[in-house]
Amino acid sequence: MKCPNCQKEMKHVIAESYHYLESGLDNVILRGIDVFQCPCGEEVVSIPSIDELHTLIGLRLVKKDSLLNGKEIRFLRKNIGVSAQKLAKQMGMDNATISRWENDKQRITKSHDLHLRLIYCNMKRIPPEEINHLIQEEFPKVQEAYKEIPPYVIPQTEWSKDKGHTCTS
Ligand SMILES: [Zn+2]
Question: Which DSSP symbol is given to 8?
Fold first, then answer.
């Protein structure tokens, strides 16, 4: 791959650990991602099958055993492609509340949190038996508290079968 900045050939490395801040979340680490680096400082990161990756992250969040934080709420909402206004209508809330949740200015209640998870699963067409399992087994374990969860480390093989690493050197 040529550097978009200086047109030199870039060096291809496979990142052992890539902090995926572009997700909008603080604690997602990707493993095995293709990174192209140029001596000029330019770096291009190539993440395949973003949709599959985001679904994987979303499904992890709906199983979180404590309340969703603002960034997680925003991630789930964006992943199902609904505006804050639309989500507010679907949840019987006002826009301002959704915005306060997402900006960590107000904590979501457990009831609203679980409602949001169900809307997410519905929009994602999660099979009914999996939703049933969530309701029966996972939701009762959710604590009404914010908790730091450990970094979510995801090897590329978990969401993408694309092993087409094209080494350019
Ligand atoms: Zn360059």
Answer: P
